Amino acid sequence: MARTAYVTDLKSLQGECSANYLRLSRLVGDMESGQRREIALSSNDRHFGDLQLTIVEQAPYTTMVDVTQSGPLDAIMDGPRMRVHLYHDVRMAEVTDFQRERHFSGRYRYPNARMHQPDEKLQLNRFLGEWLAHGLAHGHAYDLPEMR
């Protein structure tokens, strides 16, 4: 049986990027270029690490944010790291760099040398969404009174 080629689901990708824009906007608030915010991730009095948001660059229509996580395994390996572009004119946020790898295509042939999934770009943006949603639901910002 022949496999059909993966077709990029633009509606899902745009929906995820729009939701991530709203989540990130809530978390970064009025931060400016160079500023960093740390959010403690915890549940039931257990600390699981920190989510760091750093404004790398701001322009009238875009903002670049580094999103990283640190935690108990930092001595063994680095936590996840993403660079996210916020496009203010269309109110969307897109992952443009993950673990220092850039420029993701909307579709990959599978298998491939980099071992990307056919829908790698959508999966990265979904991961960002889950990460930010968890930060909003269970995080405690060190410099904000309330995030919810």
Largest sheet: 7 strands, antiparallel
Structural shape:
globular
- What is the overall number of helices? 2
Question: Which band does the percent of strand residues land in?
Answer: 25-35%
Q: What's the overall average pLDDT, rounded?
A: 82
- What's the structural domain tally? 1
Strand order of the largest sheet: 6-5-4-3-2-1-7
Please bin the fraction of helical residues: 25-40%
The helix-and-strand class reads alpha+beta
Q: How far do the termini sit from each other?
A: 49 Å
Order of SSEs: HEEEEEEHE
Report Rg.
Answer: 16 Å
Number of strands: 7
Q: Low-confidence parts, pLDDT < 50 over ≥5 residues?
A: none
InterPro entries: DUF1249
Protein name: DUF1249 domain-containing protein
Write a short abstract of this structure.
This protein is of the alpha+beta class and about 150 residues long.
Can you put this structure into words, describing what you see?
The structure is a single chain. The longest helix is centred in the N-terminal third of the chain and has 19 residues, at 10-28. This protein has one domain (10-137). It has 148 residues and is of the alpha+beta class. The chain is globular and about 50 Å long. Strand 2 and strand 3 (62-70) form a beta hairpin. The chain has a seven-stranded antiparallel β-sheet with strand order 6-5-4-3-2-1-7. 26% of the residues lie in helices and 33% in strands. It is built from two helices and seven strands; from the N terminus they run H-E-E-E-E-E-E-H-E. The termini are far apart.
